[in-house]
Amino acid sequence: MSTTGRLFGLGVGPGDPELITLKALRHLRAAPVVAHFAARGKAGNALTIIERYLAPEQIVQPLIYPVTTENLPPPFCYETALATFYDESAAIVAAHLDAGRDVAVVCEGDPFLYGSFMYVHDRLADRYETEVTPGVCAMLACASVVGTPLVYRNQTLTVLSGVLPAEELKRRLADTESAAIMKLGSNFAKVRSVIEELGLLDRAHYVERATMGNQRIAPLSSIDPASVPYFAMILVPGARWAA
Ligand SMILES: C[S@@+](CC[C@H](N)C(=O)[O-])C[C@H]1O[C@@H](n2cnc3c(N)ncnc32)[C@H](O)[C@@H]1O
To answer: Which residues form the Tetrapyrrole methylase domain (predicted)?
Structure first.
């Protein structure tokens, strides 16, 4: 019989602590170890969302990103730094599992949608019993706070990373009826010019920190690019369907 712990990937929703599922909450409360990703010096959104649900005896295991921007000057390589970090994070989690402790890795939104848990999952899921609990993703939280349906009938929704080059964003946006553009931050100005070039400015919505205490919704044209955080998104909903 196996004595190793079980690995749980828990989606904890987009920000509002009430948007965690009953199942994720049950697994969270039962886990002796709760691991979370965060930038250096910050608690991180996932921990902030679930902190209130933790008991004092639970071990909180931070996994701290070495870098938080993809635009690193040479000789640094973002991909190499991240791959090493995910190897090390997986080893930290595996040490708890080998000691027989279940580990819940909490993930803002859904774990399998651009979630850092994916990289731990890729490294450990074939070695340990693993269960993933989906979460309310940020894209859907943004649609709900803006109050806009995303896709009608047979429309296509494209999920894009704002890190992509302008030409690629333009090509993909031109070929879809509805889009969510994530990972804004310093990519905002580039993304907005593409949207403007395609004549989509009037249909686009800007949402920052949806469902969190400091949520901001504003017209795209009014946004100062220097003020845009990483936790922001642009939605271009599908045109309303009228029979
Ligand atoms: C690494 S991805 C994580 C996505 C998450 N796993 C999900 O299911 O939504 C981070 C990106 O998600 C978006 N995001 C996450 N939470 C958000 C929120 N509360 N409001 C707006 N955008 C958010 C931002 O575009 C951010 O750059």
So the answer is: 7-218
